Amino acid sequence: MPSKPVRQLLVAVAVFVVVAAGVAALLLTGRDRDAGPARPGNPPESTEPGAPAEPGERVVVVKIDNVAPARPQTGLTEADAVFVEPVEGGLTRLAAVYSTRLPPVVGPVRSARETDIDMLAQFGRPTLAFSGAAPEILALLQESPVDSATSEQIPGAYFREAARPLPHNLYVRPDQLPPGHGRSPARTFGTGPAPEGGRASGEHTVRFPAATYDFRWSAEQGRWLVALDGTPVESVGHGQVGAATVVVQQVPVRAGAHVEDVAGAVSPVAETVGTGAVTVLRDGQEFEGTWSRPAAEAPTTFTTAGGEPLRVAEGPVWILLVS
């Protein structure tokens, strides 16, 4: 048995360890409550548009198929932002931007478009996962700040799902791609409370020539639930997809220089540098305003009709590029 002085020393050490652990726990609890998890890509509660990136902040973008045989998709609910862009035949395709979370699998993956080049430059130097593109567009991507990560370049990150038909069965494991770097969508668009002057709205419809999107506000979930052509947009394992903010961005759309589909239809190009009208849905309200972006490397900013900043809510953002 230890001597009395030794026993007293052991008791003192034990008491110190217990007290130190309790203090550390209180400090950690306070930090988590005040600031949220400290991890790259997790912005503070309010940010200005174009806020600097956090060190090590990743930006990975995946082009996702959106036609009927490709649904339901995988990995949509983890996206920080989802762009809906026009493609051939009046249809749409998705570009999902990941910064705060990377799902284990995303897809089905499809090809890149000329729209992607300027559209994605506002995030810095993101990694773009896609399945191919016309040679002319590949050349444009090589000259852009976007880092390509195709199935030909990184074959080990991609796989085919036998239960799905070609070409709607290519999937990617994003954690096996280069992480990219730049600003998260929240830092790019700016987050914060809604301004005054919103109009209460429970539903909103956005029409493309051959696709119709419906957004229904769910106060319980705090999300605009997404439907396409009358069917809920679902992500495998997570149910219906929802957005905290929906941005309906009116943009010029021109005919691209390259034929894309077997019928000879020319791919449209949505112009995302410039200015135009915008409708922003958030918090069960609808705001009319203006979007502005002076250069490809600059963030897109939104203002109300009265000129007040119109920031996005915390959570997923869907941006629909409509003409």
Automatic annotation (TrEMBL):
UniProt xrefs under Pfam families: DUF3048, DUF3048_C
Organism superkingdom: Bacteria
All residue ranges annotated as the DUF3048 domain in the record: 54-177, 205-319
Protein name: Uncharacterized protein
Species for this entry: Prauserella marina
Taxonomic lineage from the root: Bacteria, Bacillati, Actinomycetota, Actinomycetes, Pseudonocardiales
